[in-house]
Design brief:
Blueprint (H helix, E strand, L loop, with lengths): L1 H28 L4 E4 L11 E9 L4 E9 L5 E3 L3 E2 L9 E5 L5 E7 L10 E10 L6 E14 L4 E2 L4 E2 L1 E5 L9 H6 L21 H7 L99
Length: about 300
């Protein structure tokens, strides 16, 4: 009887061990999947494009997933996501959209076979640093994550790792190290941010913010120096910001061989001289007054209100 009791006890222990092992196996088989967003290479400069990988560790047979990548749209510009290849190219498709500024939404789904997405890098998303980007860490956030398996059952995500891109500024002058190095400045000398090496009227700090060349006075080559050009990177548009000068880019179209400067065309104009002792005629869109002009008898400058044919 004692031997039989011991046998029963051993059977119970063995059964209990099998049950524990089964539960452990079940737990491993249904572990929550993790989604992670990579970090971009540091020392990124204005205008440089980098790619950020999105990776999945699929421990729950996830077949379909959707997620948003949130970013600061004033500092970063997102490009079209690129499928990574091996994990999804043969069985899954990727669709993306931009439901709001600073949001890239991706949907990964099986078009035919309801198979699980393989673990690994799913997609890479290109980002470009905007001219207004400041030095430091620019966050990339994963949000709105939904997952389901082949049966359509919702799967709760496990670990979610957000990403970032770091713009290094060693001397703290607001200019990324790589930008300073590219233009021959010293990334360890903060005072060079206030220099104007090309004598165009813009400091290096302003050149960086304007996305212009700090070593070239006329970045777009339109004949107007950057400091006087309201569109310093667009050679098809220019406006000389110096007071007392005309602006414009297209000619007026004459009617009956007579041009009405008040109503026709897009060129701003100002007539050099006085219509009377106290005013200067100019088109209504010209808001700048002549520089160095001393009004007579405290008079003010007036806009021409008649037909200047």
């Amino acid at each position: 009887m004692a031997g039989e009791s011991n046998n029963k006890r051993q059977t119970r222990l063995a059964s209990s061990g099998l049950l524990t092992a089964a539960l452990l196996c079940a737990h491993v088989a249904h572990a929550a999947p993790s989604l992670s967003l990579g970090a971009a290479t540091t020392a990124t400069a204005t205008g440089q494009t980098f790619t950020v990988p999105v990776s999945l560790t699929n421990d729950a047979a996830v077949a379909t997933l959707q997620f948003d990548i949130q970013y600061n749209a004033t500092q970063l510009t997102a490009g079209e996501p690129v499928i990574a290849g091996v994990p999804t190219s043969t069985q899954h498709s990727i669709a993306w959209s931009s439901p709001a500024a600073g949001v890239r939404r991706l949907v990964i789904s099986p078009p035919r076979a309801n198979s699980a997405v393989l673990s690994g890098v799913l997609v890479t998303v290109p980002f470009t640093v905007s001219p207004s980007a400041s030095a430091g860490s620019l966050p990339l956030t994963l949000a709105g994550i939904t997952m389901s398996n082949a049966a359509g059952t919702v799967v709760a995500p496990g670990t979610v790792t957000h990403g970032s891109v770091t713009v290094i500024d060693s001397d703290g002058d607001g200019l990324p190290d790589s930008w300073e190095t590219a233009y021959g400045l010293n990334p360890l000398n903060a005072s060079d941010a206030l220099l104007d090496g090309d004598n165009d009227g813009l400091t290096n700090s302003v050149e960086y913010q304007s996305n212009t060349n700090p070593t070239l006075a006329d970045t777009d080559g339109d004949g107007v120096n950057d400091g006087a050009d309201l569109y310093p990177t667009d050679p098809t548009r220019w406006t000389n910001a110096a007071p007392g000068q005309l602006t414009g880019q297209s000619a007026a179209v004459p009617a009956n061989n007579v041009v009405n400067l008040t109503t026709e065309g897009t060129i701003d104009w100002i007539r050099w001289g006085r219509a009377s002792a106290s005013d200067v005629d100019r088109k209504a869109s010209v808001i700048a007054q002549l520089s160095g002009l001393t009004p007579i008898n405290s008079a003010t400058l007036n806009r021409f209100g008649g037909n200047a044919t």
